[in-house]
Design goal:
The chain has about 70 residues and is α+β, with helices and mostly antiparallel strands. The chain is built from three helices and three strands. Belongs to the bacterial ribosomal protein bL35 family.
Length: about 70
């Protein structure tokens, strides 16, 4: 008898991607609209993505069982 499939958390699917080495990438928030209030240095910093800390990685990976 076949096993059960695990569902991925929809919110995590939209926000995170896994790298080939198993790290978790993310994009910064606050870059969608009303950007005139932010100065250019802050907007430039938010453009770059980031890597989730090692402490939070296991919980994100549980939300994304198939990567």
């Amino acid at each position: 008898m076949a096993g059960y499939k695990l569902k991925s958390k929809s919110s995590a699917k939209k926000r995170f991607k896994l790298t080939s080495k198993g790290k978790v990438k993310f994009k910064h928030a606050k870059m969608r609209h009303i950007l005139t209030k932010q100065n250019r240095n802050k907007k430039r910093d938010l453009r770059t993505g980031g890597i989730i800390s090692a402490a939070d990685t296991p919980s994100i990976k549980r939300m994304l069982p198939y990567g």
